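Work package 3, deliverable 3.1, input record:
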Amino acid sequence: MAAISSNFLLFAFFVYLLATIAFTVSITGKKWRDKQGEMTGNRWGFFGFLLSILGSLLSIAYFITRWIHSGHAPVSNMFEYMTFLGIAIGFAFVIIYAIYRSNYLGLFTMPIVMLIIAYGSMFPGEVAPLIPALQSIWLKIHVITTAIGQGILAIGFVAGLIYLIRTIDFTEANKQTRSLEFVLYAILSLVGFILMGSIFNAMNYEANFAYINENGMEAEMTYTLPALVGPNEGQLLTEGVMSPIVHAPAIIVANDLNTVIWSLFSGFVLYWVLRFVLRKRIGAAIQPILKGVSPQAVDEVSYRAIAIGFPIFTLGGLIFAMIWAQIAWTRFWGWDPKEVWALITFLFYAAYLHLRLSKGWHGEKSAWLCVIGFAIIMFNLVFVNLVIAGLHSYAL
Amino acid sequence: MKQKRLIMRSSILAIIALALAYTFYSNFMADRSVAKAGDLSVNFVLHDLEGERIELEEFKGKGVFLNFWGTYCPPCVKEMPIMEELYAEYKEKGVEIIAVNANEPKLTVERFANRHGLTFPIAIDNGLNVIEAYGIRPLPTTVLIDEHGVIVRVFTGGMTEQMVRDFMEEIKPGT
Amino acid sequence: MSNLTCECGHVNPRGTIVCESCGKPLGTNDKQEKLLDMKYEGVARRSQTYTTTFIDKVWMFFSSVKVGIWIIVITLLASALGTIYPQEMYIPPSVRPEDYYAAEYGFTGQLYYQLGFHNLYSSWWYMLLIASLGVSILIASIDRFFPLYRALKTQRVTRHANFLKRQRVFGTSEVKDIDESFDVVKKKLKEKKYSISEENGNLVAEKGRFARWGPYINHIGLIIFLIGCMLRYFPGMYVDEHMWIREGETTVVPTTGGQYHIGNEEFIIELYDEDDYVFGEAMQRAGGPIVRTYQTNAVLYERENTGAVGSEGDLVEIDRAEIRVNEPMKFDDFALYQVDYKLHELNSMSFVLEDKETGETFGQIDIDLFNPESVYDLGEGYRIEIREYFPDFVMSSSNVPSTRSQIPDNPVFIFEMFTPDTPEGEVSFVGIRTNLEPMGENDFKMTFVDVETKHVSALIVRKDYTLPILIIGGFIFMIGLVQGSYWAHRRIWFQRIDGKVWIAGHTNKNYLALRKEIDYVISDTSLSAPVDQVEEEEVNNKS
């Protein structure tokens, strides 16, 4: 069953790849011939849409089979959550595409879905048993609702990004172009992380450390990437591997911090290689593809996505979260870092809605906010989970 | 019209201000303990080491020096001899000591009392009922009750001889 | 009082931008060409028109959305600040916070502690922020809801030409038979679930007006929620107590005033099987046992009313439950939660009296560490007396044997052993792995035989009268949020002016969707589609 489940996910991944290709073809406008004759770009867009639906169906198959295998909803650790977030973005795309039929949105969303699923697969994928606090019907309700909410908000981000790449003037170096390049760099860092992880994983790289953990106890830590930052008072146990340059304090999960540093570094390399090859800013290189996008329309898509996603996120990430926290941890709110960041996400999107409705922040400002909002979501998922230790640190 | 609106706004703002002021007061300044000076003492029944029944209500007309303690608490241990010293003197003046032990084994308490030659009534609060009813958290805590059964003072922490004497004076009947 | 009378005859309050009835832009607003500001239908927001007194100024401050957004942003930043380092409640309980932050995080940690950020969320200024957020929500909503309600209620079908012209979606067209076109349009509008009003051959189609109330409803929910949070600071509104209870013990439930007692009949802990087919691989990674579940088999008693707390009054069993994480036991207004445990706490110890020379033993004594007896008579002249008992032995600072707590983590006994051979008694000092003879060489000794341990369960007692308020608040908030987010208020005006048909559309969001709908309703007529004037302008600016 576990193998069947993984295969479904793999198929889904490739179907999303095909969807990406279909949307690319639909936009680059080339006319492709097949036996019947000509086929226009728009038809390709529809194929892309069908493929994205197929991807979602395969994802559901993955989800259900894994659920049957493990006996609990597969949303209990980083691998499962990230994968499900990717799936949720896929769902959200299907919904939004049904309303607006924007192939550009598909062109950008499908790779993001693949990226998130690939990112999830970097975490240990075994079926893990649930600790007592997680054994609740609210695990499914809270996490699934939150992920779907975040998935829809992610569409707001994608649309915002499209708006920015479409409208920003790349001829001069200013705050806008630099910021946008930074966003693209961040996405490339994620790609870098996935590449680094896959390469060293294929090489079976492993470095073990003995160290003193946050409770002052001796413990061991395994690195799957060469250690730049070692754990607190870490002693290298494995021979023939790189020894760390600095050591992190005990409160920081050092191997995760190390991974973050590697990702940022590889993203940096990727970015400059691309820039060197393209001989211009990456945004500027993408811009011509988006000629056909109406900024008004994509602005509305991003707003619509936020307006749909915000209530779902609030319901899952705050209200259901509070109900469960009351049952499992005896209090509905405990200022755990993850809870606080969910509140911050809520406040941020609340500010976005007020700025848009009352202060008329449309277009570029609004698009930037969508990008920042998604950055907050990812920060909460990745950084707060992995680096700040708390009750929610269920990443095995 | 304009007048009405001003009244409306003033009253809404006043209600908000009052509610917030009370919230801040009760969170940052108010005494949140269960037994407070000025409250009527809660009646309880315990048995001393000899098995004699002790009911607080029966001490009406006397001042009660109600001390909560444990043998594992150094300041409690330290003030026991002081209380013993002043016990005889103030018993005549109408002040009674009740030392309520926090749920320790009878043997431990008995041996402790013998070792220090304590003669005032000591009762073990099995199941922490009295401690719970008085909301006692850190030990030692002393609750001073006057002859009318009203709590005069709740003191947490170790006491010097002078303090014990002052407290006894405070609840001496007829003052 | 200077009210504004529109040429249609409607009297508008001072400060109105657009006539509530016919929509004619009022005063200087009429001269401009750009699009109308349709926020709140152009009604007069009271706070902006009367700001004479101090009260009015305070009111206006909190009424401003700009101020509200600033409060949200500041709250957001403050909240983030609190996650840089762990809050005081999440640091190990054994260390002092003043040492912890400096030791763990160096100078910035020290600063964090000194600025009070280790207790940020209960600080007065954070509470003040949340309070001002609540005030802002309340006043801003009051200030906008009533005028908006009135404006939407008094609007009429026929609108002023300037109103139509300055809507974002606007267009004119000439058609031969207006009546016939309007009939088609009406049919299609009905299909799209619009409600249609007619006046002098003019049409207005409207739907989803209730979406306009969404923000106000969700704000009401938020205010109720915040009131619930505020009530938590009122005395007696909620209880949060931690208690330890060992197997076999019955103890009072804190804060119930001695009314309820809880007994722990058994504490059970289960681990996942390390060879589990499904989880085995993950268990190996975790590198240690993983707890599957733990539970307290609890019995709840109520004390018969005796008029006094203490040792009198029988306990009457009223309920039994298995308390697990996620499955609290509920009674009255209280809930008992399983939160923690301590395994294998010492409970009783057994010794035998042994002749050191011959190794002969004379009876066994089992000492209950929570209630030892003073004398254990073994018969035939053999007798053990316990001179002293220290459950958690420590040499005090003044070098006197004493106990650190009531928990028998390190029990020590001073025994006096009486035998027919030693009628004066011999003293021995016995603890775990210690057996001393402080008063000189003995003939007999107490030999340790066995211990019995018990598990201790940690429970949390909760009572919370604010929960119903929070639930109601949260529920109303969600309803309002959904109402405002998933529906849009749309209006389309079809008006005959100078033999032409003027079409104007307004929506509070999603203009693209509105235009699609207009395109659909005029699709079978020769009416031409109105344009989005914002988009037009954008295109014109580009070229």
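The first helix of chain C runs from residue 46 to 49.
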